[in-house]
């Protein structure tokens, strides 16, 4: 059987897809073999094309003086005119090659010059649940999801919270609340639902004789009203913070106002 090195020597310069077709193997397998030979210094890759190294061929490239020749225009095939990339090719490559980077996938499917555009296709496959993204950034790899789903990332465990009538829900273990939410949680823990309802004047004024739980509509209305009050006080605090930055000017205004009042 013809070896990979012999094929490269015969073909001189080929893409990964052409080499895989010549050897009758999958592009992903060809990529792995080429990477191994590249680490040994037996093959080299330039602009997506592979060839045997000088050590294998025994021939050094001769430097040839290049004469300036008038360039001839040649038809250029734009990326839009290319045949669209089939997702089955990507999934087949991942099935044989395992976890691969975006660049390795692009070379395997013959799109070495479209690595960036391939990222969006991989993200869509990830959203569709067909592939898994391993890591972040340039070095991230992609892996095909097995039919059994056994290589899917584990879902975070949900901690169940027991309901206690008339009391606030306890905080799930291991969940850290923000500072503001944590303070609110501490305040709520000390009050029961009945205490909260009794503290609402708009509700208790009309129902002083007996306790009847308010409707959800009424509770939402009180919540909106409270949020409106909070926003107003936040604006007041923001204004006071700005005034505190110019206490000298504020003091002069106050003094001048007091002087005018006393003169009257």
Automatic annotation (TrEMBL):
A Pfam family recorded for this sequence: DUF1627
Domain of life assignment: Bacteria
Name assigned to this protein: DUF1627 domain-containing protein
Native species: Escherichia coli
